[in-house]
Amino acid sequence: MIVATAPALLAHLVDDGTTDIDEDQRLIEAVGEHRRHLAAWYGDVVGLLVVRASAAPLLVRAGVVAGLRVAVMADTGLDRLGGTVAVLREAGAVVQRVEVAVAKRGEDPVPGVRRLLAAAGSLPGTAVHAEIPLTGGLIDALDLLAQSRLGPDGPAATFRIGGLASELFPPPMVLAGVICACRDRGLRFTICAGVTKALRHSDHETGFAHHGALNVLAACLSAASGAGVSAVAERLATADPVGLVEAVRAARDAPRPLWIAFTSARLVDTVADLELLDVISRRTGFDEADRDRPAAG
Fold first, then answer.
1. Which residue of 88, 98, 119, 219 is 20 to 30 Å from 55, comparing CA positions?
2. pLDDT digit string (tens) for 237-295?
3. Where are the alpha helices (DSSP H) in the chain?
């Protein structure tokens, strides 16, 4: 087996999502698949295993989480989250992050952010992420997170930029504004839905316009360099891989700015897409020959 090393810009970018799996045996099998992803040539690109809090008892009973780095989506409520984290840790999991939806779409997220921040003290050693809807109250919620920062690992924001309805997919200008707002406040963020492919595209079944991983990555590079919302939106809106791949290659050895990771429910497909564009390679992740090779597509 050839093991490649991902450049710093892409390290642990893609979290492995299991939150859509309802069948118990399939969920246990997905954890085994995650271990195989970590051992594969693209393992350095793989981030955390993302699980529902409600699935934690099953995974603990099955004895499958020892040694794994995990993110927990708090679908059982904030009050029970500390106990879930403790149980997973007792089973040998390394719980690095919790994600808490602080409001439903259209609700004011600020009260939920306040409740989450108040509970953060009961989650030592765990990065706390507030999932904030991209609707009214977003900026106030980001302000509150920024004012409450306790260190480089949090609290942070999580954004859902996809789903089962078209309004859950923000246009490039909206997402660019959110990215720039995080930059201006020194906040980092994760994305928990809507990104599976490398490039922006329209789903052939739903027609929904999905954001691409390379688009978001290049947009974050632009924002971190001081670009305005319009320039960042241009990165998000393009479906042409050449400029995106060039931007990523130029920053390959730098730490990833702003964007912590995104959750993919189809990790193999996501990796294959990145490999097709020579963004990652089973040889070295990036090498000198890659820099001079035209982008695929």
1. 119
2. 999 999 999 999 999 999 999 999 999 999 999 999 999 998 998 875 444 434 444 33
3. 24-39, 56-62, 81-90, 110-119, 138-147, 172-185, 213-224, 229-237, 241-250, 267-276, 288-292
Cβ burial of 66 (10 Å; 0-12, 13-18, 19+) is exposed
Residue 38 pLDDT exceeds 70: yes
Residue 204 has pLDDT above 60, yes or no: yes
* Cβ-based neighbours of 52, under 8 Å, separated by 6 or more: 18, 19, 72, 73, 75, 76
Q: What is the pLDDT of residues 82-119, one digit of tens each?
A: 999 999 999 999 999 999 999 999 999 999 999 999 99
| Per-residue model confidence (pLDDT) at position 149 | 72
Contact between 132 and 109 under an 8 Å Cβ cutoff? The reply is yes
pLDDT category at 6 given cuts 50, 70, 90 is: confident
**DSSP per-residue string spanning 46-79:** EEEEEEEGGGHHHHHHHT--TT-EEEEE-TT-GG
In this structure, are residues 76 and 101 in contact, taking their beta carbons and an 8 Å threshold? no
Query: Hey, which CATH number is domain 8-289, 1.20.140, 1.10.287, 3.20.20, 1.25.40?
Result: 3.20.20
Q: At what angle do helices 267-276 and 213-224 cross, to 10 degrees?
A: 70
Rounded to two decimals, the pTM is: 0.92
Q: What are the tokens at 24?
A: 């118990």
Contacts (Cβ under 8 Å, ≥6 apart) of 205:
none
- Give me the pLDDT at residue 3, please: 47
What letter does residue 195 receive in the DSSP assignment? -
Supply 65's token pair. Answer: 């989480």
Separation of alpha carbons 278 and 176, rounded Å: 25
